Each structure stands twice: as structure tokens, then as C-alpha cells.
Amino acid sequence: MGIFSFFTKDKKEKLDKGIFITRKSFFSKLANAILGKAVIDDEVLSHLEEVLISSDVGVDTTLKIIDRIQKRVEKQRKIETTELNGILREEISSLLFESGNKDEVEFSIPEGKKPYVIMVVGVNGVGKTTTIGKLSYQFKKAGKNVLLGAADTFRAAAVDQLKIWGERTGVPVVSQGMNADPASVAFDTLQSALTRGSDVVIIDTAGRLHNKVNLMNELGKIKKVMQKVVPDAPHEILLVLDASTGQNAINQCREFTAATAVNALALTKLDGTAKGGVVIGISSLFQIPVKYIGVGEQMDDLQVFNKHEFVDSFFQQ
């Protein structure tokens, strides 16, 4: 089974179920697009373009896929529509590979980074704090000493919500309460992490609107303050996006990547949407690896993203 052998049957089944709606919607549209057509021609490609865009793959990524298939058609002259699924699978796999997505199968951190500091960003409502809770659970299950920092101090109950997750997972939380200075919370969290010998630190930040420049600048302040304690922190800036919002998720990614050095993505709520194609579009468009995906509401329903497993589940017939 190769790399798939590292995936447990339970994880694979959850992934299959999690993207079922996306898969069903996509292939239903694709079947209609090639109905009555024996070979891939301009008409088929035009219909395929519509299918990809309506599946929230995104215009730029769709055009890239269409262009690659067009070149294959021109080179081979005649490609039957029965080969289209295989071709799409190859091209999507290639795009995910080019975007830097690694074949991770476990929740792990790089060697020589202790504590490994993750700053989590994203707008309210995308599942940011829930993702942090699930992430802390997975790291702890992997044997890591985890510490959370409640630096989302402006939203009502955000600190309490993170504390609840800390209690659920048995992970300590550093907080100063509502309206405290987020940078101060981050500073205290890292100092505490050094004292505790923490392996992983996850800093929650305010779910600010991505078009508020003054609030986005605050992310820069938090980074600078953290670097007084851990010079190369944060090692990871994780942007959490709600896959069910489709193109809005792409817009949020565009704004956040323009404002801060996002180097990892988490796509939540894949299990309740037909817009799972946004995983492909965002990864390709911004050349940022998707690191985690949410495929359910349970504690262990946050998975490390593995491009081979994702493509395998997506094209499962």
C-alpha cells in the first residue's frame, strides 16, 4: 500500500466520508459535462471549466488545469472522455505537489525547534479556536507537551472557549482575560513555555476582519514581542479557513497572506460542504501547503492533510 499503509482504516473512512458531498457533486456535474461525447474536445473542456469553477476550485487554478489538459490533447490529438478522470487526477496531484504539500501522516514538529511556536490567525466563525483545541489534542496524543496562549482577548467568551478546550484536552492555557494586550499574553505564554519545557505552543489571536489594516498590524506586534523570548518565533503562522465558504475563503487567504507571512493552512468543515474543491484552488493559487483539514466535529476529526490520500478519496468511485 506504500504511504497509504500509514493511514489507519478509521482515518481513511473519515476522510472518505468527509469529502463525500464534494465528490458526489463534482462527479455528477462532470458526468453531465461529457454526456454523449466520445473524445475530449473544446466543448468538453469548456464544460469542464464550468464544472471546476462551480466546484470552487477557483478561476486561476481552473484555467491552469484546463491549459494543461489542452496541451495534452494537442500533443496526443485524440483522448477519449473515459480517460478524463485519470487525467484530472494526475493534474490535481501535480498541483498539490507543486504547492509544497508534503506527505505527512502524523502530527509532528521539526527537530531542533523547542518550543515550536504556532500562531493561529483567521476571521471569526471559521472554527479557529475549535481547530486549536483539536490540534492541541492531537499533539498531546502524539506525546508532546503542549501549551496554549489565549491572545484572542477582544471577542466575548473567546478566552473562556479556549479554556474549555484546555480542560477537555488536559492542556494548560495562559490567559489574562478579556481586553488584555494580546502581545502581552503571547509574551507570557512563551516565557511560561520555556519554564515548563513545552514542546509546542499554540497562540490564538483575535478573529479580526481581514480588511481591518490596523488590526492586522497587531499581528506584526505580536510576532515582534514573541521574538523577544524565542528569536525565531513564530515558526508557523497557521491560517484557518472555512471550506464551506468557497470563494470567500480564497478572498480571506488573499488578504491574510498580504498582511502576514502565512506558511500553513487549515481547512475546516469539509464534511458539510460541496465546496471542497477550494482545497485545491487555495493550495495552488497561493503556493502555501494545506497542513490540516477538518472532516467532522469529533475531537479526532482534525487530520494531517496528505495529498495522496485526499486525491485517492476524491477520485474514489
What does this structure look like?
The chain has 317 residues and is α/β, with parallel strands linked by helices. The protein is built from 12 helices and 8 strands. The protein has helices at residues 9-18, 20-33, 42-54, 59-76, 84-98, 128-141, 158-169, 182-196, 213-226, 247-259, 278-286, 307-314; strands at residues 116-121, 146-151, 173-174, 200-205, 236-242, 264-268, 290-294, 302-304. The protein has an 8-stranded mixed beta sheet with strand order 3-2-4-1-5-6-7-8, sandwiched between helices. α6 packs parallel to α7 (158-169). The longest helix is centred in the N-terminal third of the chain and has 18 residues, at 59-76. The model is unreliable at 1-5 (pLDDT under 50).
Mean pLDDT: 90
Give the low-confidence spans.
Answer: 1-5
Proportion in helices = 40-55%
SS-based structural class? Answer: alpha/beta
What is the H/E order? HHHHHEHEHEHEHEHEHEEH
Apparent shape: elongated
Tally the beta strands: 8
Major β-sheet annotation: 8 strands, mixed
Give the count of helical stretches.
12
Rg computed from alpha carbons, rounded to a whole number of angstroms: 21 Å
Share of residues in strands: 5-15%
* Spatial separation of the terminal alpha carbons: 18 Å
* Side-by-side strand order of the widest sheet: 3-2-4-1-5-6-7-8
Strands, helices and their partners?
Elements: H1 9-18, H2 20-33, H3 42-54, H4 59-76, H5 84-98, E1 116-121, H6 128-141, E2 146-151, H7 158-169, E3 173-174, H8 182-196, E4 200-205, H9 213-226, E5 236-242, H10 247-259, E6 264-268, H11 278-286, E7 290-294, E8 302-304, H12 307-314
Parallel strand pairs: 1-4, 1-5, 2-3, 2-4, 5-6, 6-7
Antiparallel strand pairs: 7-8
